[in-house]
Amino acid sequence: MKATIKNLSNETVGEIELSEAVFGLPVRTDILARMVNWQLAKRRSGNHKTKTISEIRGTTKKPYGQKGTGRARQGSIRNAQFRGGATIFGPVVRSHEHDLTKKVRKLALKTALSSKAAEGKLVVLDAAAAASHKTKDLAALLSALGLTSALFIDGSNLDENFAKASRNIPLIDVLPEQGANVYDILRRDTLVLTRNAVEQLEARLK
């Protein structure tokens, strides 16, 4: 599969051969859904917590006698039916992580890359490097390229000016190759890979 290489000035500067094993797989939404669920579950803090009866502050004394009052029997004012009492079956601090095999995670990343290629929303850049760290200058270049929602993936080392200039542009994300992930690829409309990123991703995923 061939793709044209562009520069930030929207000029064609060459062609690159994309590996079918990485960018030409059939799109499987079930694999993508499993991977996104795994990523979002892994990032949850899981620190929500309600108090059980043993954690509620209050006396342990029986509020009134068992018999003779005409009211329902009660053993503690810390029970759930009282104001300020315990919560029954409430959330507790826990991890929401679940397992997903390495083989499935690797397939999901290749499938996400293939889905962008199949939709025609994959752009290959010669390099993601900016002459200035000014957001205004980079925003003008991206506007000329027609990019309003995009994820840029560069090689191992990001260009400092490009990374700084892109920070304040809405819906534009920049990641190094080792940070490429399914969720970020799918949440942006266009995937922009540099020539270095393509080479490194193919070496990693083949």
UniProtKB/TrEMBL annotation:
<dbReference type="GO" id="GO:0006412">
    <property type="term" value="P:translation"/>
</dbReference>
<dbReference type="GO" id="GO:1990904">
    <property type="term" value="C:ribonucleoprotein complex"/>
</dbReference>
<keyword id="KW-0687">Ribonucleoprotein</keyword>
<protein>
    <recommendedName>
        <fullName>Large ribosomal subunit protein uL4</fullName>
    </recommendedName>
</protein>
<comment type="similarity">
    <text>Belongs to the universal ribosomal protein uL4 family.</text>
</comment>
<dbReference type="InterPro" id="IPR013005">
    <property type="entry name" value="Ribosomal_uL4-like"/>
</dbReference>
<comment type="function">
    <text>One of the primary rRNA binding proteins, this protein initially binds near the 5'-end of the 23S rRNA. It is important during the early stages of 50S assembly. It makes multiple contacts with different domains of the 23S rRNA in the assembled 50S subunit and ribosome.</text>
</comment>
<keyword id="KW-0694">RNA-binding</keyword>
<dbReference type="GO" id="GO:0005840">
    <property type="term" value="C:ribosome"/>
</dbReference>
<comment type="function">
    <text>Forms part of the polypeptide exit tunnel.</text>
</comment>
<dbReference type="InterPro" id="IPR023574">
    <property type="entry name" value="Ribosomal_uL4_dom_sf"/>
</dbReference>
<dbReference type="GO" id="GO:0003735">
    <property type="term" value="F:structural constituent of ribosome"/>
</dbReference>
<dbReference type="InterPro" id="IPR002136">
    <property type="entry name" value="Ribosomal_uL4"/>
</dbReference>
<dbReference type="Pfam" id="PF00573">
    <property type="entry name" value="Ribosomal_L4"/>
</dbReference>
<keyword id="KW-0689">Ribosomal protein</keyword>
<comment type="subunit">
    <text>Part of the 50S ribosomal subunit.</text>
</comment>
<dbReference type="GO" id="GO:0019843">
    <property type="term" value="F:rRNA binding"/>
</dbReference>
<keyword id="KW-0699">rRNA-binding</keyword>
